[in-house]
Amino acid sequence: MDNSMAGIxxxxxxxxxxxxxxxxxxxSRLGAEQKVSIKNFRPNVFVEGPEAFxxxxxxxxxxxxxxxxxxxECLRCIQSTVxxxxxxxxxxxxxxxxxxxxxxxGPFKYGRMGIYLRxxxxxxIRKGDAIYVPxxxxx
Length: 139
Hints:
It holds the Pfam family MOSC. The chain is α+β, with helices and mostly antiparallel strands and 139 residues long. 12% of the residues lie in helices and 24% in strands. It has one domain: PK beta-barrel domain-like (M1 Pyruvate Kinase, Domain 3, Beta Barrel).
């Protein structure tokens, strides 16, 4: 497969990354009955280690053999209010909380959490691979 095929089976980008610390920060603002898990957000890359929202400042990310470029912030939709067992939050959580403290600066004023990555160099990503962020925006 050459690079022209990278990401053709996705909605917005080949990779959707969520940071565990970011989910933990959100959960610290939600009530006990409203806690969320990674499964509410359905990423295909989940990272542990960086501080909450550090991914907002990433420009390029290397994971395993794969080199990527951040292409979009992830605006959260109603799907994040559906739990892993299929129940929808009557309170619209976590959307309501994200819209209070993580509202997008772009034209669509949704809560944002996570990033979309465009693949620049294809390869394999394996569980436990180190993540390398060579440069950050606003450093």
